[in-house]
Specification:
This protein has 279 residues and is α+β, with helices and mostly antiparallel strands. The chain is built from eleven helices and four strands. Helix 3 crosses helix 5 and helix 7 packs parallel to helix 10.
Length: 279
């Protein structure tokens, strides 16, 4: 396929996209033409195969292939209502995968929607990674503040480490050593660096509660503060369990340091590409 043809098809596919209720989508009738199908009957068979693929992938078909009706002109200013389907980008990708790859339009669409779908997945993952890094930084700040509060009330760094460990045991129902083994955490690294976002936020909430209650109740000394922290972690655990989230059963997340490095690397690349395009 020549460069001019690729550019033309790219423009056609981009122009055909629309936004409905905040979701990017394509008209099945328009996509039929773009993919080189002259008859709706033939194209609808490809759509049926795509729907089957969608269902097999565990996705809700109606979320990606909603049925609608549209009016079309049939001559002499008359109109009639016909079947129409709105297609998400993922639906278009599945249609391209199930189409006749001998058609140049289908071959192009397979690459176009595969790349675009992958790009959307990358963006979504980047947002999730950023939220996790932000949550981890927030936990570190909360624990720093808590450490200062404890120091003023007669708790040293060693005792704080013990209190924090007992809090983790109340939250995860596992000792720190067992939890580290389960998550594959190196011995010299904090557990939180390998926790999923919801677990990081759970630890942060419990630590915030401890910090607030220590001051509100004017607690002093290791034992009362330890009891308070354990109770707060147990309360957070209870809330998670009520929402069917068992923290110790959640899979480990990627090393937060690696995630941070990747995010910074992506930012540098994006900035470099932006500068290159502007020069």
């Amino acid at each position: 396929m020549k460069s001019e043809e690729i550019k033309m098809l790219f423009a056609q596919f981009e122009d055909a996209a629309a936004e409905v209720e905040g979701v990017e989508c394509w008209s099945a009738r328009e996509l039929q033409k773009l993919l080189g199908y002259s008859k709706w009957e033939n194209f609808s068979k490809v759509i049926d195969k795509a729907k089957e693929s969608c269902q097999n992938a565990g996705q809700e078909v109606s979320d990606h292939f909603p049925d609608v009706r549209k009016m079309v002109k049939i001559g002499s200013n008359a109109e009639k209502e016909i079947d129409e389907i709105l297609l998400t980008r993922y639906a278009c990708y599945l249609i391209a995968q199930n189409g006749d790859s001998r058609k140049e339009q289908i071959a192009f669409a397979q690459s176009y929607f595969a790349v675009q779908t992958r790009r959307a997945e990358i963006i979504e993952q980047r947002i999730l990674d950023y939220e996790r890094v932000k949550a981890r930084a927030k936990l570190a700040e909360t624990e720093k503040i808590l450490s200062g509060v404890l120091y003023e009330r007669g708790v040293n760094d060693r005792d704080f480490a013990i209190i924090r460990s007992k809090g983790d045991q109340a939250l995860f129902k596992l000792s720190t050593a067992t939890l580290k083994r389960r998550l594959g955490v190196p011995g010299n690294r904090p557990v939180a660096d390998f926790l999923p976002t919801v677990s990081i936020k759970a630890k942060d909430l419990a630590a915030e509660m401890t910090s607030v209650n220590i001051q509100a109740k004017d607690l002093r000394g290791v034992k009362p503060i330890e009891t308070e922290h354990v109770d707060n972690n147990a309360a957070v655990r209870k809330m998670l369990l009520e929402r069917s989230i068992v923290p110790e059963q959640l899979p480990p997340a990627e090393d937060i340091r690696k995630v941070e490095r990747q995010l910074k690397s992506d930012e540098k690349k994006a900035l470099k590409n932006k500068n290159s395009n502007e020069s």
